[in-house]
Amino acid sequence: RLLGRLKANYQLSELVKAEGYLEWLDLAASFTIQSIQNWQYSTNSIHYLLALWGRLVSAVPYVRPETGAQGHVQALEKQVLGVVEAYIESMLGSVETVLRSDGALDDPLDDDGSLKEQLDRLPNICRFQYAPVATMIIAKFDPLLTQYQELMRHVGSGSTESAPPDVAQRLAIVEGQLTWLTYMVGTIVGGHSWSGAQMGDGEEAIDASLSRRALQLAQGVDYRLTSSNGAGRSDPKLELAILFYFQNFRRVYMFMWDQVSGSGTVGTSVVSMMASKLDSTPSTKQKVYQRMFEHLGMGDHTAVANLIVTKIGNNLKYWPEEQEIVAKTLELLLDMAGGYSSSKLLLTLETVRFLARHHTEDHFPFLSNPQNSRHRTTFHAILARLLLSPSGEEKLGLTLEQFVDPILNTMGHLESFSPTDLRNEAARRPLIGVFRDLRGIAASLHNRRTYGMLFDVMQPQHMPLFSRVADAWWDQPDVIISLLRFMQEFCHNKANRVNFDQSSPNGILLFRATSDVVCAFGRRILASPAPTDTTDIYKRRYKGIGLALNVLNSALGGNYVCFGVFALYNDPALDNALDVALKLALNIPLDDVIAYPKLSKSFYGLIELLFRNHKATVLSMETGVFMQLMTAVHEGLQTSDATISSLCANTIDHLATFYFENASRDKPEMRNLNKHLAAQPNLFSSLTATLFNLLLFGAPQNFWAVMRPMLSLMLASESSFTAYKDHLMSTQSPENQALLNDAFSKLVHDVNRSLDSANRDRFTQRLTAFRVASRAFLTL
């Protein structure tokens, strides 16, 4: 650590001038090499030493060669090569050492944190002397690749375990060493810089040379996997290393496909078309990009992308029980689908067309593994994103209706079940799969057109299934959580995607379906006694309640339903949903609400929405229940979580604004509110005192949240403000009282009795100045 920090505190230009710098460099290199060679005792220290060398080589361009000790650059080049060579030799040697230790030694490849730290520091060091380092790696890679191919021919289509013991052991050693080399190649290629200073150095040819070996290895591993129908699988660590390489290669060399191939002409702007006519010569970046694929010698970018995507498809097909491989494979596919250029490239590949047409358990067994249920969501989100991208349906030869058809067929089968059969264990996995898949698809709908396409295939035939499932499976977290998460995504009006025609009833129909699900689940869970055993109570009870409240929050705050229609036509959907939601919220002890952050955000989000848009419902409650809500708001206002305190502050603002604007009107809501205030006359004064205390004495991150309701609360109850002012002044010395009185006078000076935005902004500025001025002299 000391060596690692040395360069952080001193510039290289200072170090090279120091007496004995070259001797220190020799000693540091010797110490580093010995530490790396004794890796079993220093695994967690190697990355600190690599950090030192990484910082030294990064600073070389900023130091003149004639500065300091003569020949310091050449000395550094020599020592860096020694360090890199020791690292490569030691890591390759560690494979056999670990294997022969029979479990006594930990494999460095299993320590993800330390491995990542080391790999993050390698690119800078290796690219300092790229050509000789690449020669070292290739000299190790080629013989191992040849050995691996011979061993695979020897093993044939059988698994590694079925091979003779000596062959299996040799195969394990070779695979382990290839794993290290693939990680090294991946991180070095990923360190390629597209900055102008380093682009013309011919490094893309070395990248291509290293990449050729990694891609040939990937082809060999994939051929063995497919030719043996999944029996001849390599070490999972090698598969993860190949995915790591693909991820780095994708990031550096798969962002320019549309520019080089000319596919980007569709839909380009007039300006870009004019620019291309004026300058038709390829840019430096494009030349480097093309040279890299020429040197690679494995076809153009489309061929390489097809190799990567084919590997992705085979991983999903033949590694169903290896969660980490499935997760990393999908992460790679997601990143490729998320890139502007790489997503266009994916749409041209036959493998992607196959994935989009056959996204079922029959073709991809990982979907049937219960442990991979969350990966189903990612898988379908990726495919839906590609399908719904510009010209996606045309290039994949598939519509969204055809894409969701296998899911709808499963739903149709489940809909035919009686309530008893629906609760049968045989329905559990299909239900979870359907909701996970639909959630992934819904997450990829980003505009009105695509959302409407999914809504049209769901409504009206398939919507009733959701409430039936909520009623039958309410007590099984795996099923009900997957349903509620889908409903939350489906009801979420992100990017204003839930936007139906003015004459369309779809918004109301969507809310009805949402209300049915929340009510079915809520009534069941309210009817069941709270568990006496509080072990894992969040997963068994509170998680579902929190998600149900989130579902309703998304629907209530989505701005796609005219809620006045429900009362006008005596439709109970809204009243039922609000009634159940309030009962669910108040059924949880306040201490538990505060203790679980996700639950508290759902709880306070609901209360804020009710006070914003459904005051009649809130104010018509019994005084005891109303005060229970206000007590919860009072507690939430004082939490350290800025999101929760903001929700509570907004809730208070809605209540105080309503009281101020309607105090003189004879309305049912005002009569109810006055009844509550008569039973609890100090409500406004306690809220005022808490808000001012938070402003003056609270944490800095919270004072912006608490300022919004202060004006509306002062106007709603001026006596509360006066009482707090008198109380605060009574706690101060005579000198401070004069200063405080002056600060309060400046605060209310020229503030009108209105809640228009200009007056609010002016008062907020005064509050900020009041806070700064008062905190300078106030004593507790």
Task: Explain what this protein looks like in three dimensions.
The protein contains 41 helices and no strands. By secondary structure, the protein is mainly alpha-helical.
Index terms:
780 residues, mainly alpha, 73% helix, 0% strand
Summary?
The protein is mostly helical and 780 residues long.
Counting DSSP H or I runs of 4 or more residues, the number of helices is: 41
Uncertain spans: 262-279
What would you call the shape?
A: globular
Mean pLDDT: 88
Whole-Å distance between the termini?
Answer: 45 Å
Output the radius of gyration: 33 Å
Q: Quick one: biggest sheet? A: none
Helix proportion: over 70%
Multimerization state: single chain
| Beta-strand percent range | under 5%
Count the strands? 0
Indicate the structural class. Answer: mainly alpha
